[in-house]
Amino acid sequence: MNDRPRDEHRTARSRKATDEEADAWRDLVATARRTAADGLVVGTSGNVSVRVGDTVPVTPSGVPYDRLTPDDVTGVDLDGRQVLGTLVPTSELPLHLAVYRTTDAGAVVHTHAVHATAVSTLVPELPLIHYMATALGGPVRVAPYAPYGTEELAGNMLRALAGRTGCLLQNHGTVTCGATLDQAFDRTAQLEWMCRVWLTASSVPGLTPSLLTPGQLAEVQERMRDYGRRH
After folding, report:
1. Is 219 labeled as catalytic in the residue annotation?
2. 3-state SS string for the chain
């Protein structure tokens, strides 16, 4: 996947990035590298984007994150037309744009995290193993499988994301969104952790994990409304 010459991932040059877009690109590359460093992706799998007005800086296709530089800024408009850079945007562009067109999200992180991907093959919804499901808006759904990079996958994802800030993609991985790159990344890490907890608990022979009830989760959601606020 990574053995093609770098030039094969380039398109015709587009306009120069604004200062805000250039800053967003640096933050985006740092977040993408965090997904690799934390084991949430392998090689060039997964992708990250951030919205700056009507422009979406996004990781390019087939280029390892540690090879990206400040000059490699890659971005599209909300219709998917490339407006920044020369590298070809990620093949999962429909997935990212679908989120920005239908929500007020400021960033999207997509990974192939091991435990989350495993859970996506087992259940239609991550069981309520921990109250931090509230950080994602409630029980995390699994979007039915569709080929990567397709509008079908984007549509399945949007239905799974309804009322949520994260979902699983069947036999594929995770998608989370947030107001910022840090928030989207933190939600990805939280989702992977919950999947790992459920898989670990479920693997104990002869025992079944206790799960939270919808009522218990609603109580936590109410308590967390004021979490971190000063009184």
Report:
1. no
2. CCCCCHHHHECCCCECCCHHHHHHHHHHHHHHHHHHHCCCCCCCCCEEEECECCEEEECECCCCHHHCCHHHCCEEECCCCEEECCECECCCHHHHHHHHHHCCCCEEEEECCHHHHHHHCCCCECCCCCHHHHHHCCCCEEECCCCCCCHHHHHHHHHHHCCCCEEEECCCEEEEEECCHHHHHHHHHHHHHHHHHHHHHHCCCCCCCCCCCHHHHHHHHHHHCCCCCCC
Burial (0-12, 13-18, 19+ Cβ within 10 Å), 41: buried
Nearest 5°: phi and psi at 8? Answer: -70, -10
For 6, 29, 64, 155, 224, the CA distances from 67, given in Å and listed in that order, are 10, 10, 6, 32, 40
| CA 40 and chain centroid, separation | 10
The catalytic position among 8, 92, 151, 192 is 92
pLDDT tens-place string over residues 136-183: 999 999 999 999 999 999 999 999 999 999 999 999 999 999 999 999
